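User: Hello, can you help with two protein structures?

Assistant: Certainly.
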Amino acid sequence: MSSCAKVKNDQANSFVSASSVARTISSIKKLPKDDIWWNIYGEDQAWNFKNANRFLPTVHVHRFGEVSTLKSRINEKIADVVVDTPIGKKTFKTFLENPVSTTMSLVILYRGDIVFEYYPHQEDYEKPIYWSVTKIIVSTLVGMLEEEGLVDITKPVSSYIKDLKNSSYGRITIENLLNMASGFDCADNYFDRSSCYYRYSSAIGDGYWTEESPSNPYHFVASLEPKVIAPQGTKYQYSGVDTFVLGWLIETVLGMPLHDAITKKIWMKIGAEADGLMIAPRNGIPVIHGGLMIRPRDAARFGLLFTPSYKKVASSRLVSESFIKRISVIPSNLQFDKRKQSQNGKRFAHSAYQWDAVFSNSDYFKGGWAGQGILVNPQKDLVAVYTGYAIDDNESQPDLLPILRQLLNHIYPSAR
């Protein structure tokens, strides 16, 4: 038997089914009837995050060719590092094993190799939803189009999307959309169904909808007239509508749906282990601002595109050095929310290009609702990706990010 065949045989023998038929039936019966599916917490939410494709329509992000190898070079020190946590000082592995932790998976790469990998609440082959981590896939695609000379980010987005020519969003520059600085009062709001954002999310299928809800997010956003709260480019306000417009831009320039653009520009070029999915609850339109479902190792492969080890997954540089550097530049005249700065930590520098936080040590972080995240450090050649869930509607579970950054700054204190 060849070594390749032996590996495949070993994998088949070790396969564990992630959900029984009985659990699937039981979990789907628990889905809210008069609310959106994700407004349920604890272990039921964890199951939903990993199995959204069982009860929602999805579209595919296709892989091609050979799988790029991520070598396993486990750093045994990582598990034993003592970190400060909300439950006291614990070794990192002990914390992840504690019932208070809702981390489902964590993969850490250093110099392109796996140095830590742990799946406390999911199988390695499962594809949980990454929620807003999807946003940096969108911004990366815009960066690629910018590098190719297909878009000029200093121009209003209506320069490319003619349907936005006479709309409020049409006059916003691509750069200000990338930096969440439209100046509109349309911040993410997951519970007020009358809010600007929730009405958009209902149109795309990420919020609860009825027969009276708008059903075409493109028409809805084109007709939106949100309140102006600041001149564009001066105030940071997190909004998935900004991401949607960027996705619409990509679709217009490339002449294909967003999931196919991800396939063409990224997924078919990184040696992904598996196809990705995007939830598309209404009319086959993917949830552009947060619908990506992928394996953790494939999320890590994407992260490698921002590091010197990109060659381990791609035959050529897909994310340019100039784009990576632009993320690290503090946008001029842009004010950041003090509460958000406090949440992200005292060494938070700024947000840019849809990344939630760029830290002074060159950590780039993007989070997803209820416990998902990707952290890359181009200088240290580090990538960490994780998935999780919310224990309750107050999201009172520990935040993994500050604990993870403690660990990584201890093990890898400086760039090579």
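That covers the first. Now for the second protein you mentioned:
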Amino acid sequence: MRKKKVTYCCLLLWASFFTTVTAQNTNTPMMGWSSWNTFRVHINEKLIQETADAMVTRGLKDAGYKYVNIDDGYFGGRDSNGYLFTNKKKFPNGMKALADYIHSKGLKAGIYSDAGSNTCGSIYDADTLGVGVGLWQHDDIDCKTFFQDWGYDFIKIDWCGGEATGQSEQQRYTDIYKAINRTGRTDVRYNICRWQFPGTWATRLASSWRIHTDINPRFKTIDQIIEKNLYLSPYVSLGHYNDMDMLEVGRGLSEDKEKTHFGIWAIMSSPLMIGCDLRTIPEKTLSIITNQEVIALNQDSLGMQAEVIERGKDYLILSKTIQKREGKLRAVALYNRSNVIKKIRVDFDKLYLSGKVQVRDLWNHQETGTFTEYYETLVPAHGTALIRLEGSKRHDRICYEAEYAFMQEYLPDNKQMAHFAYKAGASGDYIMKRLGNSPSNWAEFRKVYVSKGGEYQLKITYFSGDKRDIQIAVNESEYKQSGLCSGAWDQAAITTVKVKLHKGYNTIRLYNSNGWAPDIDKMEISKSR
């Protein structure tokens, strides 16, 4: 590791990148607060008003947090015409007045419902007023109430009563999406709370979708959610994000664990919805979640989710490009999963950077220096170092891991369609299995970038114990490789195809409509000589 002093000019340049987030972009992940983690159904008008006040007075609004979400527990029932009404004991002035109060603070108001008839609170918290108040058979009337009459800006829709409708998740959530659109509101954010990645259909409808069961303030659960989201970046696009659930900061975690929790949520572009009591939030927690340099990673205009650059037995290195696609700026998280302090090293060539690389420590708001080849640092137990790199040069990406292909039919519980799976000895430790055997069961590498167009070698590393075919669509051209067999399912082989790539971005699709394709490890591209 080689290091040089950073000049004063570089310091000024870096500082200019981090401006205060005063107005949240509606295409970037949501930032705000939600009532469920701490209060569940035990909410009231005074609590919500005081929380909105705290968002302003504690500096959270100025830091970019805009949404105040009222989760389950506000329902009073339905009147004889089917319209919702509020629990008057808890919300004496009603939900419109409360939304107006939130809006008067320069904030956005969020609301809750269920895709079925009964809410989660009615099932798990014995809230009898949550029975019959879900959206089922009331889509239009409730959406009109929420977004036209009451003026709410966001809705989280649970699935606790969804199974009883007899509809598929896709059909039910699509119907709700259409009902929201019929209100004429085009600015409503829509969260699908299904407790696992719902399917690629959701990425076209929702602002965000939950990928895991409910979070809690145990670090083991936080680590499990991080693991669950590691290979879901292909399904993220600007305005549509994997929701890792509400933040459990301010609820008893150590400072290092809170930094990991918040930092990984930020770099993975999850919505940042605080779940603690903002009226009593600790100052140390407040300083973590208002760190503008970390928030900037979450609110980056590219809307990308960090991917695994390297994973060891007890550490992870995650990274994403920021500000400009194929640019020289990268954000990196060095996450120590172990119980002891650990030195973690990131090699710059794995980030497609070369030459001299400037490194900035985002937690401490300071320049670390200029390095070549690699950077390493000590990371506390369960802690995460967050750094920002600016390289002298960026080279084209060569390797595309199969687990990061967009798999059209991917569902976590459906192992009969294309999915990623652990495989010892594979590049990145994961492969793509069960590709093909259906016209819709394809996988794509999107935005495959080359700085020069022309003829390239496309190398696909695969595993197959019998002869299998694979078809490859590269932009408008088709290629087929037949009878691929590596000799055994635990033995890798490579097939090479000459393809033409456009200068800039290309799309490469792998498929086999009439039979199973081999298991895919990775795809590599290199210029033909």
